[in-house]
Every structure is written in C-alpha cells, then in structure tokens.
Design a protein that fits this description.
10 helices; 11 strands; 317 residues; elongated; Rossmann fold; UPF0353/GerABKA_families; 3-stranded antiparallel sheet; 2 domains; transmembrane; alpha/beta
Length: 317
C-alpha cells in the first residue's frame, strides 16, 4: 500500500488548529512556570500532592495526536492498493522449434523456458484461467484455458522439439483459446493476455501483421520474450547451424498489440522477466479509502489520553 492522497485535501487545513492548540498549550505551561508565586508553607503543601510532572504533558500530547488523526480521517485519505484481477485469462505460447535446443542459455533454451514458464504459471492467482499453446511448424493448443494450473505445468514439462517456427499461428491459436473461455453474461470482458516465448523469426503459417490486427481487434496484448544470444548454435546431421535470436520481430509484435517486449539472454534473466509479467498480468493497482486507519489511530490516542488522565489524576476522599 503506497501513494497516499486525500479526496478532500482542503480539510487538512484544520490541522493548523491542532498546531495552534499545541503552541497555546506550550505557551500556557511556560507562563505558569514564570508566574508561579512562592508562599510560606507552599513547599510542604506541594509535597503532599501527587507528582504529575511530565505525565500531564503526555495526556496533552495524546489528545493532540487524536485530533490530528481525526482531521486526517475527515480529509478522506486514499492509498494505492495492489489487488488481484481474478477474472483474467493468460495463454502461454511456447516455441518448441529445433533452434530451442541451442545451449547459449543454460542448460538449453527450451529447458530454461520450461522452468520459467512453470514458475510463472504457479505464481498466478488460483482463479486465473491459464492455457498453453506450443508451436513449431504448427501451433497446438495443448491445454485450453483452465483454473487447473497444475495441468498446465505438467503439460509444459512434456513438450518436445519440432521443425519450423509458426509464431503467427501461435498468436491466432492463443486468441481463439481466449475467445472460447466462457464469460459471465452482462459483464465486461475479462482481462486477457498472451505471453509468447520464441527465439526466432516467423518462418511459416500466418503473417505477424495479420495476427497483430486480430489481437488489436480482440483487445488482447501480446507480451513477448526473446531469449537466446546472437551466437546460438544447434547440432544437425552435417554439423552445427547458427540460430541467433531474432528480437526485433518479437518486439514489434508486442509494440503493435500494446504488450511488453523483453529480452532474456539467460535462464536467470528469463525468470526475472516472468516475475515482471506475472506482476503486470496478475494484479492491478486501485485506490482504496484508508480513513478507517486514521480514525483508529485517533481513537487509540484518545483512549490513551483518557486512561492516562484517570490513572494520574489526584485522588481525594
């Protein structure tokens, strides 16, 4: 909770009156001390009375705190509170093309992606619908959006490599999966996002400009993670083939659809990227009233002042 603000900041001007009372109290105490008159036998009389000393100042200070708290509550304070967006749908689209076998990301790109994807899914709120699309030469909806997150994690662990990189088809399949999620009638569409991981350019299937327009029409941002390095290589029958990461195409896909584009050159960086996306997708920041807290503080201070006054007041028979 942060970003404290007030719906009626003008009411905070009343705090000036609390300050005036505090100053007046201090001046009164100083005046009493200055104007004190010493009379014969007064010292003996004072010795027979309870010694309040600093304790009377505690009572006054508690009352001033109580007034300040009540004034703050009167100004209707609000704060930014992070709350879960419980109706969200997230589809993870994971590239399983042969280039994902490159070991420039330890232990290899696909293993690092699987680990981070599982961590991401496990960290989402329980009521999120989460789906999984795997793509190489074709895109396959492995798990339709569901609240059974363990099912998605289990499916991620079983993914295998294949030929080709159909990024456009993967986005289209993800959007179709999101559109098929049942929604409550009469309510606004639930927030949704596609999180796509890939290390290469679109080599087959639908074009990226085509699916970018489809995502825009559906109002679904596509966040992309380009991982790997320019020096990635994979082993083939005739030796080795360079498979450099192609981040610009993925960044453009994210930019056009109003998603976020990330670069993750290693498994560790990829985990951090997923943490960031999880925060963006999983929660939203809202302003909530916190006047109750200020009122509670004022009440506690008033109770403390009253209790102190009763406990330290002179007793008579």
């Amino acid at each position: 909770m942060h970003g404290l603000a007030f719906d009626h900041p003008g009411r905070l001007l009343l705090l000036a009156l609390v300050v005036v009372l505090g100053v007046a109290y201090a001046l009164l105490q100083r005046r009493r001390s200055r104007d004190a008159v010493v009379l014969p036998g007064l010292s003996a009389l004072m010795a027979s009375l309870p010694k309040l000393g600093w304790r009377r100042h505690v009572v006054a200070a508690a009352m001033l705190v109580s007034l300040a708290g009540a004034t703050a509550a009167f100004a209707a304070p609000t704060a930014e509170v992070k709350v879960a967006r419980e109706r969200a749908t997230v589809v993870v689209a994971l590239d399983v093309s042969l280039s994902m076998a490159a070991t420039d990301v330890s232990p290899d790109r696909l293993s690092a992606a699987k680990s981070a994807a599982s961590q991401f899914v496990s960290g989402l709120p329980a009521r999120f619908n989460v789906g999984l699309v795997a793509f190489s030469g074709v895109a396959d909806t492995v798990v339709a959006p569901t609240q059974d997150h363990q099912k998605v994690e289990d499916a991620i662990a079983t993914l295998q490599l294949g030929n080709g990189t159909a990024i456009g088809d993967a986005v289209a399949s993800s959007l179709d999966a999101i559109a098929a999620v049942p929604g409550a009638r009469g309510t606004a569409a639930a927030p949704a996002r596609v999180v796509l991981l890939s290390d290469g350019a679109n080599t087959t299937g639908r074009t990226l400009p085509d699916v970018e327009q489809q995502a825009l029409a559906a109002g679904v941002p596509v966040s992309t993670i380009a991982y790997g390095t320019p020096d990635g290589i994979v082993r083939v029958q005739d030796g080795f083939v360079r498979v450099p990461v192609d981040g610009p195409a993925l960044a453009e896909l994210a930019d056009v659809t109003h998603g976020q584009a990330y670069q993750a050159a290693s498994g560790k960086e990829l985990e951090g990227v997923y943490d960031d996306i999880g925060s963006q997708v999983g929660y939203t920041t809202e302003r909530h009233g916190v006047a109750a807290g200020a009122t509670g503080l004022a009440l506690l201070a008033a109770l403390a002042a009253g209790a102190a006054a009763l406990a330290w007041s002179p007793r008579t028979i």
